[in-house]
Design goal:
By secondary structure, the chain is α/β, with parallel strands linked by helices. Among the domains are: 4-143 and 376-453, FAD/NAD(P)-binding domain, CATH 3.50.50.60; 145-208 and 327-374, 3-Layer(bba) Sandwich (FAD/NAD(P)-binding domain), CATH 3.50.50. It has 16 helices and 20 strands. The protein is globular and about 70 Å long.
């Protein structure tokens, strides 16, 4: 790898690959570090049974190259992990991006040298590169975590995390398996593991709302129709993130019968579209409760054991305030005689040792523990890197009370460092690929502006950063998102500050703000001349 770069990119998933392609096209010397041995990011690591995207495949794809989006053929409505990974491999090969990536090298530190206006980047494999700009494309959901249970390291069986699944897969036949966690990955993995495991115990702390995927093969006719209208669809997506059937009707403005019919229609169609059945589901508690009640009724219909059904009914937080899950045969899985659900709030795990999980009133012998326990979202991947800015202070210290940045893109005192789909941006609340393309395009234009004007560095002004943090908080406060202990707030990580991290104002509004900042000569940023 070239030791003196214009841009260093951390990560080679959707964001890293597009950054390499875009910036190389501007004539910049750009290279990336990737901890894995190939491209793919989260889709390289998440190989657990049932892993697939909950955004429809025709949307969860790049828009920057029309021949690419016309030539690629998706097999299903919701693409499986291996198909998405194959797509990213195709992109890397089609645009000859692999020579720009150092694989098997995890970035351990990135320090800014104010005297030279360059970032010094080190990896766990040694060596150093310096770059004028540093782009953190390290992922919003890439820092997986095991549960904090005493003795977990002493377990004699196999411990797996859905976010770091063995490449060769796992054979559960004849085994007693425990799955900890019923978030998105757990909801996808549990039905698949139940198919082969001799016994499956699901340990649930908080039930999640699960809507059916209704996944199905994609017909050639539907793909052709989408591809013919891709230009219009992509333009719409840049304003809304993901194309859903957005309702303009408040839930309580129609009769109970009409509400029930609309919920049922969307339930049968499947997917996250369900959340958009009425315009005020995420802002009006009473409207939200009508949607929650509908899902509770479906759970009681689908799960034959009444006690288990009640354990699966989410309560105490609004529908959608935690990431809604999209599943296939999830609730039905609990009707199988070899599958058991345990409520961890009623019967917490006290320890793990030997070949068993110890609970307050029981001991569960198991062969395999699958941890579907999620990620240190949005900030976790950055926290694993020793990032130090203009004054030598660590980013982790600055973010000790919660992440602070401007536009979700840059941090005061950390010049020339850009963050892709991190805290303070729409990020995980929209189609990630749409958010990634917006970020990378804005970053590329910013770098071009600095190059044209002969500037050496750019960083946010503290006042602009403070104002943006306030704007993000105010936008969240207008919704029901803040009424759940979700990973959006870091609630799944012990000791992590409870701060709502994504910008909920919508990607169209966010895009307009970013474009206005750039058009005004980068208002809110301090730009230093290279003279």
């Amino acid at each position: 790898m070239t030791r003196e770069l214009d841009v260093v990119v951390v990560g080679a998933g959707f964001a890293g690959l597009y950054a390499l392609h875009k910036l190389r096209g501007l004539g910049l010397a750009v290279h990336a570090f990737e901890a894995a041995n190939d491209v793919g990011g989260v889709w390289h690591w998440n190989r657990y049974p049932g892993a697939r995207c909950d955004v429809e495949s025709l949307q969860y794809s790049y828009s920057f190259d029309d021949p690419l989006q016309q030539e690629w053929v998706w097999s299903e409505r919701y693409a499986q992990q291996d198909e998405i990974l194959a797509y990213l491999h195709h992109v890397a090969d089609r645009f000859a991006l692999r020579p720009l990536i150092a694989f098997g090298k995890r970035v351990t530190s990135a320090h800014f040298d104010p005297a030279a206006d360059r970032w010094h980047v080190h990896t766990d494999r040694g060596g150093e590169v310096t770059a004028r700009f540093c782009i953190m494309a390290s992922g919003s959901l890439s820092a997986s975590r095991l549960p904090d249970v005493p003795g977990i390291e002493t377990f004699a069986g196999q411990i797996l995390h859905t976010g770091a699944w063995p490449r060769d897969g796992v054979d559960f036949a004849g085994k007693s398996v425990a799955v900890i966690g019923t978030g998105s990955s757990g909801v996808q993995a549990i039905p698949q593991i139940a198919r082969s495991a001799e016994r499956l115990v699901v340990l649930q702390r908080t039930p999640n709302f699960v809507v059916p995927a209704r996944n199905q093969p994609l017909s050639g006719e539907k793909q052709a129709a989408w591809k013919a209208a891709y230009a219009d669809y992509r333009a719409q997506a840049r304003q809304v993130g993901t194309l859903y059937d957005f309702s303009q009707t408040p839930a309580l403005s129609v009769s109970a019968e009409a509400r029930e019919a609309e919920y049922r229609r969307r339930w049968e169609l499947g997917g996250v579209n369900f959340v958009h059945a009425f315009s005020d589901i995420m802002t009006d508690p009473a409207a939200n409760q009508t949607a929650a009640d509908f899902v509770h009724a479906r759970i009681r219909e689908l799960v034959t054991d009444p006690k288990t059904a009640e354990m699966l009914c989410p309560r105490g937080y609004p529908l959608g305030a935690k990431r809604i899950c999209v599943g296939s045969d999830y609730y039905e899985t609990y009707n199988q005689p070899h599958v058991m659900l345990i409520d961890l709030q009623a019967t917490p795990v006290t320890a793990i040792s030997g070949d068993a999980i110890h609970m307050a009133d029981a001991v569960l012998p198991v062969d395999v523990i699958v941890c579907a326990t999620g990620y240190d979202a949005l900030t976790g991947a950055l926290a694993q890197i020793d990032i130090r800015g203009r004054h030598g202070a660590a980013l982790s210290a600055k973010w000790a009370d919660g992440p602070r940045n401007y536009l979700g893109l840059m941090v005061a005192d950390f010049p020339n460092m850009f963050i892709v789909t991190g805290p303070g941006s729409p990020s995980v609340l929209v189609n990630m690929v749409v958010g990634i393309e917006q970020h990378i395009d804005w970053i590329a234009e910013c770098i071009q502006h600095l190059t044209r004007t002969g500037a050496s560095r750019i960083e946010p002004e503290p006042d602009a950063e403070n104002a943006w943090v306030q704007q993000v908080n105010e936008a969240a406060a207008e919704t029901l998102f803040v009424q759940a202990n979700s990973w959006y707030l870091g609630a799944n990580i012990p000791g992590k500050p409870r701060v709502f991290m994504p910008f909920v104002g919508g990607i169209g509004r966010y895009r307009a703000i970013c474009d206005e900042v750039a058009a005004s000569g980068y208002a809110g940023f301090q730009i230093t001349s290279g003279d």
